[in-house]
Design goal:
38% helix; six-stranded mixed β-sheet; four-stranded parallel β-sheet; alpha/beta; 11 helices
């Protein structure tokens, strides 16, 4: 079975008075439309990892994530679609929620793991599946050189050039891939990463380890809203207004924070008038399932 998807990820303009007043053209690449479950950078990061597993005749995908992990769900859906068995180590206590329900519905076996053991994922894999010749290790979030390779292809799909590309940043894999794509296409586009973690400067090391060649880029570390999966009323109100204005569904963990940064930087005159800016929608809208109470 060929491991591929028909990519549908159009670029759409975001029309807003702020951008008109500042002389900016802002667009969004709709990677969220690639697949209902294996969406955005989840597919891009899994594509070559899954092909590697198939090439090695590995039939059992083993990966890691939190209780609301879009990566776990994407891996479960990809395993079902492409004929793999799947197991997910879930960080923390045994819980039930909508995301994990969907993982199990796609056939993924879940192993809830205490946080101390979870920290060393390779040791955890070896302890449980070291004797399973069919088992294939996939790091949390799909972080890998293969994942970066898949993400680099996003740039190849672009039919226009942009002064800036923005993307939310968790593991650094997507950012590294897009930077590699910019470099290989010899573009003058400046890449902007928006870490979703507090004290997100550490992401620079994660990005750099997957770069094909050194490159300059900017980390905007002030848009974490108190940390990973944290939020506040200002961000929630921004997301409500953005979805109502555009019809594009976003969530507070990744894409919501990244888009907020663009609006905020535009308001502060960060961009030169006439700039073209591309925001990458990295999917993961199922993250909304764990935050429904924030929108009441």
């Amino acid at each position: 079975m060929d491991i591929s998807l028909d990519i549908y990820s159009p670029v759409q303009q975001i029309n807003h008075k702020l951008f008109i007043d500042k002389g900016l053209k802002v667009f969004i690449k709709r990677d969220d439309l690639i697949h209902p479950m294996i969406s955005g950078n989840k597919w891009r990061k899994l594509k070559y990892v899954l092909r590697s597993a198939r090439a090695q005749n590995k039939a059992h995908l083993v990966t890691f994530g939190g209780a609301f992990s879009n990566h776990l769900l994407a891996t479960a859906a990809a395993a079902a679609k492409f004929g793999f068995k799947a197991t997910g180590f879930v960080r923390g206590e045994d819980v039930q929620n909508d995301t994990l329900f969907l993982c199990k519905l796609h056939g993924m076996k879940l192993i809830f793991t205490n946080r101390d053991s979870y920290r060393d994922k390779k040791a955890l894999f070896d302890n449980v599946f070291g004797s399973d010749e069919n088992a294939f290790f996939i790091d949390e979030g799909g972080a890998s050189a293969e994942g970066a390779k898949g993400c680099s292809e996003l740039v190849d799909e672009l039919t226009e050039t942009y002064d800036h590309i923005f993307c939310a940043c968790g593991t650094g894999t997507t950012a590294a891939g897009i930077i590699n794509g910019i470099t290989s296409n010899v573009l003058r586009t400046h890449f902007n990463a928006v870490p979703v973690f507090k004290n997100g400067e550490f992401i620079r090391d994660e990005i750099d380890r997957f770069l094909n060649v050194p490159a300059k880029y900017t980390l905007h570390t002030g848009y974490h809203f108190s940390g990973y999966a944290k939020t506040d009323p200002q961000l929630i109100q921004f997301i409500k207004q953005f979805v109502a204005d555009t019809g594009v569904l976003i969530e507070p963990v990744y894409t919501g924070k990244m888009l907020y940064s663009i609006y905020d930087l535009a308001a502060k005159n960060h961009f030169a008038p006439g700039s073209k800016i591309l925001a990458v929608h990295s999917g993961g809208i199922w993250g909304l399932l764990g935050m429904k109470d924030k929108f009441v």
